[in-house]
Amino acid sequence: MQILSDHKMFEGHQRIYLHESEACRTEMRFGLYVPPDVDAATAPILIWLSGLTCTEQNFITKAGAQRKAAELGMILVAPDTSPRGDAVPDAPDAAYDLGLGAGFYVDATQKPWDQHYRMEHYIARELPALLAQELGLGSAQEGSGKMGIAGHSMGGHGALVLHFRHPDLFKTVSAFAPIVAPTMVPWGEKAFTAYLGADREKWRAYDACALVGTYKSTAHILIDQGLADDFLDSQLQPHLFEQACAEAGQALTLRRLDGYDHSYYFIASFIDDHLIHNARGLTGATG
Ligand SMILES: N[C@@H](CCC(=O)N[C@@H](CSC=O)C(=O)NCC(=O)O)C(=O)O
């Protein structure tokens, strides 16, 4: 692993790492914020999954999460949203919602995507192993009970789905404006058709509304949704997840926030609440 950049921030360090990925068969980057004076072996970790068009940069430069992470002693990990590189296929028309920057946190089964687009394996297997073995971050080990996951939009979908599919790895979860029912909205239908094929039944394994109640979760889920979000009715539809959680007995707080849109201005406004929510579930900290 190589450190591409390292900046002191709130007495801790914001770094970008580059490494060869076995899961994605290409080089991958991730951001890592390490607060001051933390014990790497025991500090809680929050994995952040970004949305369409993002790289590892968006969250670390726009969300303003590091100040609260430094206060809480919480390590932040912000991976890229897809494999990249000359060998990695993109959408034929370079569309923003498929291919590069749009991995959807699934393991693709369809050609040509299946060679590199293995983002579930990357986020839930390879990255935690790297964090634990190469950087000594003990909480990245399955069963530690001290790693959570959060994200935005496509990344909110990823956070919910990977929490349900890996509850012993990601103990807590929260999301901003997540795509909660990808099998029923245009962004998800397009991506899942390409990555997973035409059989819609197979898509359900990556749909938070279908998974809630099927996979064991003891978490209390926090979702924030802006009411001035242009994608609210067409792509997000949080009421579907609210209904599914109610039917399944899944604890959920869904906050509908007046006037907020889909941007990182919205995320920056409430990111502290999400860090505190996850820290509380991981360590009992109250922020
Ligand atoms: N370019 C597209 C929309 C792209 C967009 O809004 N991306 C969001 C995530 S959307 C769901 O995953 C994002 O996080 N962008 C990066 C940022 O820094 O804001 C369009 O114009 O419709």
UniProtKB/TrEMBL annotation:
InterPro entries: AB_hydrolase_fold, Esterase-like, S-formylglutathione_hydrol. It is an enzyme of class 3 (hydrolase). Its EC number is 3.1.2.12. It catalyses: S-formylglutathione + H2O = formate + glutathione + H(+). Pfam families: Esterase. GO terms for biological process: formaldehyde catabolic process. Belongs to the esterase D family. NCBIfam families: fghA_ester_D. PANTHER family: S-FORMYLGLUTATHIONE HYDROLASE. This is S-formylglutathione hydrolase.
